[in-house]
Amino acid sequence: MERIIEKATEPTNWISFTVIVPKPHAPDAIRVCIDMRAANKAIKGVRNITPTTDDITQPNGAKVFSKIDLKEGYHQLILAEESRHITAFATQLEFFDIKD
Questions:
Q1: Domains of the chain: total
Q2: pLDDT one digit per residue (tens) for the chain, 100 residues
Q3: Which residues, at least 6 apart from 95, have a Cβ–Cβ distance to it below 8 Å?
Q4: CATH number (domain holding residue 15)
Q5: CB-based contact 92:5 (threshold 8 Å)
Q6: What's the predicted TM-score (pTM) here?
Q7: Is residue 90 part of a domain?
Q8: What is the full DSSP assignment across 37-65?
Q9: Is 45 a domain residue?
Q10: Residue 36 lies in a domain
Q11: Which residues are registered as beta bridge partners of 23?
Q12: Domain residues for 91?
């Protein structure tokens, strides 16, 4: 399995914190999340030609529809190396960056 995080090697002003929450259907299990609200401020908007949710829910006479399964859709895009410092997050012991 390829690693998608790595130890942070350079200082950064972008530090997100880990948040531990119980899994909704398994109260004895936990989910480790990252609060990326601060990092979201660094994201540049891009023009997207993919239809919006509103476009999809308004078929306007369409007779053929497609279904897309995004279950395996996470971690499909490579993060530019010069952007990795923005994804830095902290645990109790170390700092990490997201690679991909």
A1: 1
A2: 567 788 888 888 888 999 999 998 998 999 989 999 988 888 777 776 777 778 777 777 777 877 777 666 666 667 788 888 888 888 888 887 777 6
A3: 7, 8, 15, 88, 89
A4: 3.10.10.10
A5: no
A6: 0.59
A7: yes
A8: HHHHTTPPP----SPPHHHHH--TT----
A9: no
A10: yes
A11: 26
A12: 1-40+77-100
